Amino acid sequence: xxxVGVFSVKSYNKDxxxxxxxxxxxxxGLFFIFRIWPILESFRLSFTNHSIVSxxxxxxxxxxxxxxxxxxxxxRISLINTLLFATLITIAVIFLALAITLVMDRRKIINIGxxxxxxxxxVVISVVPSAIIWKWMYDPQYGIFNYVLSFFGIGSVxxxxxxxxxxxxxxxxxxxxxxxxxxxIFWVGLKxxxxxxxxxxxxxxxxxxQIIRSIILPLLKPIMFFSLFLATIRGFTIFSEVYVMTVxxxxxxxxxxxxxTYDIYERAFLYYKTGQANTEGVILFLIVLxxxxxxxxMLGKGE
Amino acid sequence: xxxMSLILICLSIIMVLTLSTSFAAAPVTITFWxxxxxxxxxxxxxxxxxxxxxxxxxxxxxxxxxxQAEQKFAIAxxxxxxxxxxxxxxxIANLHIKNGMLGPAPxxxxxWLNKNFKSSxxxxxxxxxxxxxGVPDVHGFQVLYYNLDYYKxxxxxxxxxNLDELMDYARxxxxxxxxxxxxxxxxxxxxxxxxxxxxxxFDIFLFPNGGSVIEPTTPGKFKANFANEAGYKALNFYLQxxxxxxxxxxxxxxxxxxxxxxxxxxxxxxxxVIGECKKLAPEMNxxxxxxxxxxxxxxxxxxxxxxxxxxxSKNKSIAWDFAMYLNKDKYLVQMxxxxxxxxxxxxxxxxxxxxxxxxxQQVLNxxxxxxxxxxxxxxxxxxxxxxFSSRLVEAFSDASMVDNKEKIMxxxxxxxxxxxxxLKSNGEYGE
Lengths: 303, 431
Prior knowledge:
The structure holds two protein chains of two kinds. Chain A is an all-alpha fold. Chain A folds into two domains: 11-45, no CATH class; 68-302, Orthogonal Bundle (MetI-like fold). Chain A contains twelve helices and two strands, in the order E-E-H-H-H-H-H-H-H-H-H-H-H-H. Chain A is globular, with a radius of gyration of 25 Å. In chain A, 33% of the residues are buried. Chain B is an alpha+beta fold. Chain B folds into two domains: 28-139 and 304-364, Periplasmic binding protein-like II (D-Maltodextrin-Binding Protein, domain 2, 3-Layer(aba) Sandwich), CATH 3.40.190; 143-302 and 369-425, Periplasmic binding protein-like II (D-Maltodextrin-Binding Protein, domain 2). Chain B has 18 helices and 14 strands. In chain B, helix 10 (229-244) packs across helix 18 (405-425) and helix 17 (381-396) packs antiparallel against helix 18. Chain A binds chain B through residues 52-55, 73-74, 139-141, 146, 155-158, 160-164, 243, 246-256, 258, 262, 266, 269-273, and chain B through 67, 71, 74-75, 77-78, 95-96, 99, 101, 179, 181, 190-195, 197-198, 249-255, 257, 263, 380, 382-383, 386-387, 389-391, 393-394, 397, 418.
């Protein structure tokens, strides 16, 4: 018997190991077929002029990458919009989720479970129906937002169709949708902080703000980095929210809210240029990978 | 030995008989995909009748959301997993014809098509070798819808004839609240939304003065045709409507939704809106006229959907047969009466529908000089129209462009360059 930690485990012989690997083989196989292979295929197709409607295509080297990075207006607009979306959504979601969690914790609100459920409710509603509901709320004539504005004598606003507001209207919807998820993450993190530290600080005469600043926030750092990392990746890969909000004559204007995933969709499924779509997909993958590595390092430092 | 041979022969006969009976009894399933959910009741009614007449055939009509259907079909074709029958716009059908993914109509279908459809409609589904690949189904074209009660209020008796009159009418018909906010648009324009829709609607305003988003030059080649007087007049019309005369606005509902709710006095749309009005605003008093004309021509856009059969279908002959069956008078009348789409087969008696819905007669009452312009049959159609739509949406919101010819022309020239570059990159540009 070998001792590992407090447990004793039996030493396994080669046959056991072989059996374990054989048993895992189908799972690895499926993982390769459905996860790894499509990614590798995507890399391969990014060097071609592949079209979804044709069986013939050829390799064109880095041409797609050169075109996209040098003079592709759609790519440029989509990249700028994606950066804006991801940054604003991440900042808003993290800040609000943290603030709400701290208020719920510090103020000892009685029915906290109900409050958490209310915040979490949008998370469990599918994106498409909730986006349609919000489209109605943004309706210029019958929407609740303009109805509220009318009490203050403010005229109707084209929340989605007016290019000055369309991006912020979608951001507001996304923040509403994601907020509950991050509140839960922060709440779990907060509950992991030993009550002893806070009690001790209280005995020393620290007020709420001092407790938050000197005890809670430093101890929440790993959770904050994790949330930041998660929100950024989700912000970069946002699609359904934008897609639903732009559909139809009452939808948001195309270029103003076009993000990278939406542009990939257009190239692949509207223009049938799958080679270009894969190139853009690879670029998005590299951006997200880069951010993940940077945030991972920051997370390491945070710990 | 003789006995043995006799037994073997008997067994063989029994086997052949059994197999042939089971083959005859095996039902053939025809899969029929469509992106037009509203037409499904008609397709299903025809399928049900067809199955009664052909007990060995089972027809499964599956509706999808329009774009999803087109994408699913495009992906399924190269892998041979598509349906036996699909209904789609002729320019999408042509994309697949060019890539060799569709099967041509057999001789008997070909003959039937030539007898029953206008050659101009069949040309849209025909390849360079003269083979026809589709049975024209419904056709859509834009007409002008106008609210008769609002016209009466404004003292208007006849629909407008040109862009200037259209704007004059819109100014008389628009309504504002005490603070000057628009509460009823004089004309509802397509000014927002993703995809190609904005540019498709813009075409109607380019046509009167001889423009179009893209126009054919030589067979298979195209170029942008809006960086000109036609483009200036069309774009300035939108800009004036939004910023100068304020007869349309970003803060008001648009399209058929606005029309059935009485929130706009007039707008251009395809004929299916008649069905929508009947369902959602049966009491509404409205008229239909042809879209306005101009110095060069009076024209509207024409889009025809066709029933197509993939080359990889294992049941081509039944699929073609059912495509012809769908064109029986009974179903074409039902399509107009219940759904609002007008089919393309010649010689159908729609008098029964005109009695209950006279608007259809107004729609089909086209003047002889009325041109029906089909979308450019270019593989870059979606890309050019989507890109131009995005640019237009930005231009519409720029109030500084109103009546500013220099600025408008600069915008149009830049946009035309982008569209021509797209055509060049797809090998479809031609002077």
